[in-house]
């Protein structure tokens, strides 16, 4: 974690790991973090954060770090801090370890569809499976079954006492358009607000109109724009 200080007071930070994330960073802060990043080799596979910070960071490091695999400059950050606007699906529940046989392949499919590369690539299967199991163990994984078929899933990626961020929202392709995601997300919002955090957030690509429609129906509202650079 890097920090930028003004008169001894921390004014901005940058999380530096597989994900590089500027935190409360204005354009000057982001440029300063970028100069620090250029003193070492790139280890991040993703730069993600508020659009206003990711752009100036990338402007500085782009010529040295090389061509990105994908850039997503217009991602909507959404929040809901009240009850969902539609009826929650009563079949959505917290995942348990016994679900991993169907849940793990669904997580791989979602990640591959969203990111464009499998999380198992390069020998990452064990680490990714451990992460999925960790979220289940925390009670942060949500599933909906129709018989033996997993038809909806989502996870809490991270949470504080103030807010939780949702990731990995997925419905199998042949079950899309049936309302599973809308009522499923309503259930996730209801359950997360009841036992994890009062505000539920996520971010979605501008071009994903189907997902944006789901979140709008549930009651999410846009608060800012994110951007992501992937290597």
Automatic annotation (TrEMBL):
Source superkingdom: Bacteria
> Which is a Pfam family this sequence falls into?
Acetyltransf_1
UniProt keyword annotation of Transferase present: yes
Q: Please provide the record's keywords in A-Z order.
A: Acyltransferase, Transferase
Where does the N-acetyltransferase domain lie?
90-231
| InterPro entries (alphabetical) | Acyl_CoA_acyltransferase, Bact_Acetyltransf, DUF4081, GNAT_dom
Record-given protein name: GNAT family N-acetyltransferase
Source organism per UniProt? Nocardioides aromaticivorans
